[in-house]
Amino acid sequence: MLQLQTFVFNPLQENTYVLFDETKECVVIDPGCYEASEQYDLADFIETNQLKVVKLLNTHCHVDHVLGNAFIKEKYKTKLYIHPIDEATLRAVKVYASHYGFFNYQDTEPDAFLKEGEAVTFGNQSLDVLFVPGHAPGHVAFYSAQEKIVIGGDVLFYNSIGRTDLPGGNFDTLINSIHQKLFTLPDDVTVYPGHGPETTIGYEKRTNPFCALT
C-alpha cells in the first residue's frame, strides 16, 4: 500500500513529498528543504521509517522545488529525474536563487529524463508521468491510478492554478494541461499540489474559478 508524507519547506511554503510502501523503497518529490533544520526533518523521517531513497523526482525546476536536490543526491546517492524540456529551468536557478534570499543554493545536474507515457517505479508502486506544461515548460505530474492520487506540482491548486508570468509560462497552455491531462482523471483522484492543501479532481472541475468545467 502506498503511503505519502508531506513536508512544507522554505519561505515559499513548498510541499515536498515522500512516497513509500511496505518494501521501504521511497521516492522524494520536489525537495524544497533549504535550511539545515529542514534537511534534518526530512532525513529524520526517512531514517526513522527505515526507508531507502531510490529516486529523486522534480515535477518542475523552479527554485522552491529544487533547493534540496543536491542534499538528497549527495546523502542518498540517488539519481535526479526531470523532464528534458525543464533542464534550462533547472540551470537558471543558480543565476537567480540569491534574489529570493537563497544565497547558499547548491546547483546540481539531472541524471535521467522523464517522458510522458513512461512510468516511475519503486517498491510495488508505479507512477505514470503526465506532461502538463504551462507553469513551467517541462512540468510533469505523477499519477497512480491504483492509489487514486496525482502529485501535481504547480499546475492545479485548491480553487486556484499555477502562475504563468514566469519565464516559460503560458496561461492557455496551462489551462489546456489541466483540462486535457488532469480533468480527464477520475473525479475521486486526490491532487497533492506544490503548495497548499490537497484537493480532488472532481471538486476542482466543479468549483475552480480559473478552470472549472461549466
Report on the structure:
It comes from Ohtaekwangia koreensis. The strands form three sheets. Strands 1-2-3-4-5-6 form a six-stranded mixed beta sheet, covered by helices on one side. It is α/β, with parallel strands linked by helices and 214 residues long. The chain has helices at 36-48, 63-66, 69-76, 87-96, 171-182, 201-207, and strands spanning 3-9, 14-20, 25-29, 52-57, 80-82, 112-113, 119-122, 125-131, 140-144, 149-153, 156-157, 160-161, 190-193, 199-200. The chain is globular.
Report the CATH C-level class.
Answer: Alpha Beta
Enumerate the strands of the largest sheet in spatial order, edge to edge or round the barrel.
Answer: 1-2-3-4-5-6
Q: For the residues shown, what is the average pLDDT? A: 97
**CATH fold-level name:** Metallo-beta-lactamase, Chain A
Total tally of structural domains: 1
Task: Give the number of helices.
Answer: 6
Tally the beta strands.
Answer: 14
How far is it from the N-terminal to the C-terminal residue, by CA? 35 Å
Domain Metallo-beta-lactamase: 13-195
Keywords: Hydrolase, Metal-binding, Zinc
Protein name: Glyoxylase, beta-lactamase superfamily II
InterPro entries: MBL_Glyoxalase_II, Metallo-B-lactamas, RibonucZ/Hydroxyglut_hydro
